[in-house]
PLP-dependent aminotransferase family protein
Amino acid sequence: MAAIPVEAFYLTPGATGSLQQQIRAMVTQGILAGRFRPGARMPSSRGLAGHLGVSRITVTLAYSDLVSSDYLTSAGRSGYFVSGTAPLAPEFPASAPPAEAIDFKGLTGGRFSSVVRVERPDDWDRYPWPFIYGQADPTLFDHQNWRQCALRALGKRDFAALTSDYYERDDPLLLQELVRSILPRRGIAAREEEVLLTLGAQNALWIAAMALLGPGRRAVVENPGYPAWRAIVAATGAEAVPVDVDALGLPVEGLAGDVVFTTPSHQCPTNATMPVERRVALLEAAERQGFVIVEDDYEFEMSFLKPVAPALKSLDRGGRVIYAGSFSKSVFPGLRLGYLVGPPGFIAEARSLRGLMLKHPPGHIQRTMAYFLGLGHYDALVNRMKNAYRRRRQVMAEAIATEGLEVAGQGGFGGSSFWMRAGAGVDTEELALRLRADGVLIEPGRAFFAGAGPRNYYRLAYSSIAPQRIAEGVARIARALAPGAARR
Amino acid sequence: MAAIPVEAFYLTPGATGSLQQQIRAMVTQGILAGRFRPGARMPSSRGLAGHLGVSRITVTLAYSDLVSSDYLTSAGRSGYFVSGTAPLAPEFPASAPPAEAIDFKGLTGGRFSSVVRVERPDDWDRYPWPFIYGQADPTLFDHQNWRQCALRALGKRDFAALTSDYYERDDPLLLQELVRSILPRRGIAAREEEVLLTLGAQNALWIAAMALLGPGRRAVVENPGYPAWRAIVAATGAEAVPVDVDALGLPVEGLAGDVVFTTPSHQCPTNATMPVERRVALLEAAERQGFVIVEDDYEFEMSFLKPVAPALKSLDRGGRVIYAGSFSKSVFPGLRLGYLVGPPGFIAEARSLRGLMLKHPPGHIQRTMAYFLGLGHYDALVNRMKNAYRRRRQVMAEAIATEGLEVAGQGGFGGSSFWMRAGAGVDTEELALRLRADGVLIEPGRAFFAGAGPRNYYRLAYSSIAPQRIAEGVARIARALAPGAARR
């Protein structure tokens, strides 16, 4: 069997990973692609090291590692060979891509893909003035402690928790942290059978909607309101009934539906906080009319102007409130970890549904989050975010006042954004496109409105922009809104 | 402000984490619970170290760490104090658990919770003879390399990938590995727009069903077949049409439905492999009758008796096959990572649906898997599992022959289980209960059958049992099946 020449190996400039990892990858890929056959002799470690310009020990370590995972065998002084039992390349050619005979969008009625989305470029972090909502700010995140917790959760001790199929259960440690430490801060005393972990708040809302809605049922949605909830209602086949919010959030009069969705802590997107009297009235209406309330308690941690009010769920004596919370907003969005709180009968149905849909959130992430909570890192992080947001909000309020822009809703507790109104004739989608070309990202408001809503609203978030960039960004928005700017 | 006495601290026997972490947790929990108020003086490091019986440096390190996350402030020689800006305890009492006024099971029609499940105890790993299916065997898993890949994915360099909201996208690195390295082994040449990552194979099937089915539509299900698929069909409101499988898998004649679900590589649970002629006939029938095929290619990696046949999807010229695959079976079940392959029009709908349902699988897990694949660890792991399963299967086949038990389906390619038939009068659910008391776990077959199927089938898996335990376990099953055993 011929020897494999050193020329079969080259380091790709800019490749990630250590040199040892890169050598390992070249060997395994060569074997799996069928280029290096079983029995073939590898280049000597001295020869390959010279060819690649790396130290001989690096090559030797990579080779030893490949022996231990059965890609190579070592024949002592004769060198290294591709193992006779190495993973094999497939023995049949790959097929050509098939034709597309079926109109899948027609099949689903475009039920999922025809949703109006808040337009956000994928490379938002390359823009100098990203007034963008819901992304992590890496300068605030506690990367080191998260890494420590993840490492601990990757240890031998947690191995079972990490790798088992939990079937329908949750990580008992995380459940315990949630029930003992997080929910009491919202005034909620829940037992473990009243809690279900989900893959983020979006997944919590989806599960609630799938369990509570369907064709022939009606769901009240706030208008303007969280666009994903309207889309989720439509996906279940239920009818969405938009109700206009006022300065205190969702009004209680004339609510007609099987399920009422609301964001009492910070109305999305106006930031209004529903006062206690209205909350009590809403619960009384639910009792009287028999509807279920889904409370999305998003951003409750970001109350830095006044202490946060207890959740609507904490006032719920009739077992009519389904509460959705999230760690993804306050830790980082890519975490995908949230939860539902509700009566045991509801949670049992939701748990079965989650089991069919995705089994359970990955064990490793649940355990990491449990450690991050248990060691107090979560609270420290939230505290740091609140302090940063408070500063940014102040800078932003000043810049908005200086530039004479109009705030339509800002909330009394904090949050991470301003809800803004431009002049009546302004189309903020067109404005957003012009600003994007100028390096500024804003969120046009149209996606928040049901049907043909006004087009002159927009949202400015301060969660992902550095404070020293805020003034210039707001100035650019003001310039773009100045009379005649669109035609310049 | 009074000092906090050392008696407020005690080490819990058996607590996890380092001493430093335990001290940190005691302090943060005291502060968050409102027991330690801002301004209160902490015990001296010497005093607390003496009280707890730990070294003084451990206490000092814990205190410094708490200063850096703003729980404590250091006043030089005067000691440490609870920070004035420490995270605060809530100012309202937690509510009592509410009553349960609504019949949620009635509301959902018990659509999700009334599914017949394969009965498996949560503590299956405490049984000496677990012939249980679908759990990880920690002795085979490559824990160290998985940990290395996870660590790399937790590094600063990957921070953005780890923490961003991907919106509807997948990790480009993992997508690339899948398209270039995994799918070609199944004979599938797919472009990136034909692939969607999911939260495990279960989630892939759920997404396919939600996109393709609904009230008024019909889905062919294999009988016996994968119970979760029947449950998923029912949850969409579609009608499930069971079709009896034969020794070659799903027969092609008389299939009547909008969607046909099949497991051609290893029929679940009989392990039959569908021959190529029948696959071609199935695709022709799909073309003629206009149905869509959902192919669950479960366990394709575990072909150790003969080389694996290409996937049904690889023969699909008409764009009628939706292919579901998984990493959770071959890496570990708690991973929750799978994928769908289909025509771009289908993947676009499925992607929007996944966006509404859960946004995307967690970024960190996607990136870790991409590294695990790219460095060849995945193939090495699969190779190791195949070797282990080959040995176990042989031991098990011998034990079954020795004890005279009847195999109803074993497959010609490998897999991880035998499909078994007991005498006509045996109820395997009753048998499983008796065996459980004897330390043996088997899976009764009833859950695999639609409606009132036979009760004398059962499944014996060898993926989680050590080879040296197999003979005794099988002998115990034989004893339990012996005439008169039930009444002993």
